[in-house]
Design goal:
heterodimer; A: 247 residues; Rossmann fold; six-stranded mixed sheet; B: 267 residues; ABC transporter involved in vitamin B12 uptake, BtuC; globular
Chain lengths: 247, 267
């Protein structure tokens, strides 16, 4: 892997708020066309890590190098002030002027084309989540940061959206930093897993992580079994540095 | 048909309304009405400075309001007091200091009522020039920072994450607020400037379903308020500022009818 494929790289990054470390010592990199997934229990610093990678937190320990400005972000929590009259259509062009075709395409992909002229405040949780995802992909970003992008989406929709995310990573060749609680997804779509618990507890390919003892203590034996269901033959291996070794 | 002073006031007022319309929308969206009050109250200090050192009033008000905004940002960083307490502290103390300084300036005869509530008799050709050039500059800058400012108004983290630099947009917007207060003080008076910013925008909110429409209706509402207000000011011999704000209030009340109608239609 040559270095120009790296979109964002964290080096021993950490963030402290009110004298308490939210997360520390995180090193990871997201490359073009790769999906890196952050997993970990509540409060383990997943969203914080994403915000460090995005440059939202500025006063950080360690370093973060971002090599692209074409970023799409789906935050975990979004508080929008409804004193603003805002339609889905207006929201789509919030950070970049994209043309109508691109808006329609993205909304159709996430299955919410029919909501285009609706007021954002009148959407359900799941509908809003689909709009958030559509907005992030519509600008054809090089780096996508998705913080639990399918929360509140119905079960069939969830599967379809994860398939979409995987497809986007291939078609746009963009790097994705994904935060997900769904271990099935982590297994099927992810190239590299970082397991957080205030620090990096383990990382590697999904298979490597599933075999890791620290992961087992953190998520329980069952979670490890879920992952092993998906074990299959690879023609290559990822080292901990993210390099690919042909078998 | 009309006296020259009235034509001047009308031209000046239209200039003010064109600028307060879009800025007022951001004041409503970003919940800055009390911030606007603080800046406009501090404007009295700016006026006294202008008289003391023989400066241009708009320029002096602009400088003082900007300084107050900077002090506010520093206080927010360095104290544990809540934002509204700090705003109140700055608003009332700067107003009080301004009034005390006026008391010392015995060599000048002040029309305090004119300062507080606006005085159309006092609008000069030079004021019109200040309002229209200042207003044009404010609108051009607002247009330039519209994208990051609006995006961060909707959601700060999205704007920051996607590289729009919302902090810079916010800082520039603060300066624009000081500037709009500086150019509208003579028309509306310093106690009522925030009303000119908020009421037309609030009226517009009631009848719009998109941000662009809200800005346009806010401008139209401001223009109507100025025109109706100034004519009634002339007719009933009232202060210009309160007359304009009352006109804006009437428009706001009419816009409430529109809400009730649309709710009825939905049900």
């Amino acid at each position: 892997m040559s270095d120009k494929n790296i979109l964002v790289e964290l080096n021993k990054a950490g963030f402290k708020q009110n004298n308490k470390w939210l997360v520390e010592g995180v090193s990871l990199k997201v490359e073009k066309g790769k999906i890196v997934t952050l997993i970990g229990p509540n409060g383990s610093g997943k969203s914080t890590t994403a915000k460090i990678a995005l440059g939202i937190y500025k006063d950080i320990e360690g370093s973060v190098d971002k090599y692209t400005n074409k970023v799409g972000y789906v935050p975990q929590k979004i508080s929008i002030d409804w004193t603003l009259p805002l339609r889905v259509h207006d929201f789509m062009t919030l950070t970049e002027n994209i043309n109508d075709d691109a808006i329609n395409e993205a909304l159709s992909l996430t299955g919410v084309m029919h909501l285009k002229n609706k007021n954002l405040g009148n959407l359900s949780g799941g509908e809003f989540q689909r709009v958030l995802l559509a907005r992030a992909i519509s600008k054809k970003p090089e780096l996508l940061v998705l913080d639990e992008p399918v929360q509140g989406v119905d079960y069939t929709g969830e599967i379809a959206l994860y398939e979409l995310i995987k497809k986007i990573s291939d078609t746009l060749n963009c790097g994705i930093l994904l935060i997900s609680h769904d271990l099935h997804t982590v297994m099927t779509a992810t190239d590299y897993v970082v397991c957080l618990n205030g620090h990096v507890c383990c990382s590697g390919t999904p298979i490597d992580v599933a075999k890791n003892n620290e992961y087992k203590t953190l998520f329980g034996e069952q979670a490890s079994q879920i992952l092993s269901i998906y074990e299959h033959k690879h023609d290559h291996e990822h080292s901990h540095e993210g390099d690919i070794k042909k078998n | 048909m009309f006296d020259d002073f009235f034509i001047r006031a009308l031209i000046a007022g239209i200039g003010v309304a064109l600028v307060t319309g879009p800025l007022g929308c951001f004041v409503v969206w970003r919940r800055l009405s009390y911030f606007g009050d603080t800046l406009s109250h501090s404007a009295l200090l700016g006026v006294t400075m202008a008289y003391s050192f023989d400066l241009n009033i708009a320029f002096s008000v602009f400088i003082i309001s900007s300084v107050i905004a900077l002090i506010l940002i520093q206080l927010q960083k360095k104290t544990n007091l809540p934002g509204d307490a700090l705003l109140g502290l700055l608003a009332h103390s700067s107003l009080a200091v301004g009034l005390v300084v006026i008391g010392f300036l015995t060599f000048i005869r002040f029309d305090i009522m004119g300062l507080l509530f606006g005085d159309i008799l006092a609008v000069t050709t030079y004021d019109i020039f200040t309002i229209w050039t200042g207003g044009a500059i404010i609108l051009i800058i607002l247009k330039l920072i519209w994208k990051p400012l609006f995006a961060s108004t909707v959601n700060y983290e999205l704007a920051e994450a996607e590289g729009l630099n919302p902090d810079r947009a916010k800082a520039i917007f603060t300066i624009l607020m000081a500037a709009v207060i500086a150019i509208s003080i003579k028309m509306v008076g310093l106690l009522l400037i925030t009303g000119m910013l908020i009421i037309p925008a609030a009226m517009a909110r009631n009848i719009s379903d998109s941000p662009q429409k809200m800005v346009i209706f806010s401008i139209i509402g401001g223009l109507l308020s100025v025109i109706i207000g100034l004519f009634s000011s002339l007719e009933f011999n009232t202060s210009s500022g309160p007359s304009i704000i009352v006109a804006a209030l009437v428009l706001f009340i009419l816009s409430l009818l529109n809400i009730r109608q649309s709710i009825k239609l939905k049900n």
